[in-house]
Design goal:
Elements (H helix, E strand, L loop, with lengths): L1 E7 L19 H16 L6 E4 L3 H14 L5 E3 L8 H9 L7 E6 L3 H10 L10 E6 L14 E6 L7
Parallel strand pairs: 1-4, 2-3, 2-4
Antiparallel strand pairs: 1-5, 5-6
Helix pairs in contact: 1-2, 3-4
Length: 164
């Protein structure tokens, strides 16, 4: 079995209208929620062995804040194709992984992450900013991952439902 953690980036700022979508930073709520999700990962003993993220500024900052809060010190792979990606891009990135990784977290954007979650679990869920889903996948190797694999959604956490 493999575990996939799906994390949507924390809330971004729209204050600087001249910035491209890729360059938008986190807002105050994003800076509060990302560490909260990191502490959740630590407290639930779900710290990933590897993090894969889009290259957008808001996902990079989310990864940094979550990593600091949960004590993650492993490798962080930033992939341009995951910025505004379809589910296939996440699946392809995961299929390339070394099988030594049992628990991997992807950090990205909607609607791609919601569609990925639905594809992997056959369940439809909304992923607000900084939401975290834990999915158990019935595979031994990441190469096995495709649309025929149906995992189980173990838990979905939303920052506003957690205590500070």
């Amino acid at each position: 079995m493999k575990t996939l953690l799906i994390l949507r980036h924390a809330k971004s700022s729209w204050k600087e209208a001249h910035l491209t979508d890729h360059d938008r930073p986190l807002n105050k709520r994003g800076h509060r929620d990302a560490p909260k999700m990191g502490r959740l990962l630590r407290d639930k003993e779900l710290v990933p062995q590897l993090i894969i993220s889009s290259t957008a500024k808001r996902t990079r900052k989310t990864v940094k804040l979550v990593s600091e809060a949960c004590g993650y010190e492993g490798e962080r792979l930033f992939r341009e194709p995951l910025s505004a990606a379809e589910p296939e891009a996440y699946i392809e990135a995961l299929k390339e992984l070394d099988d030594k990784y049992q628990r991997v977290m992807v950090v990205g954007h909607n609607p791609g992450l919601e569609e990925l979650l639905e594809r992997l679990t056959a369940e439809e869920h909304t992923l607000p900013t900084a939401a975290l889903a834990e999915v158990s996948l019935p595979i031994q190797t990441w190469r096995e991952l495709d649309d025929s694999i149906k995992g189980e959604l173990i838990k979905l956490w939303v920052p506003r439902q957690l205590s500070a």
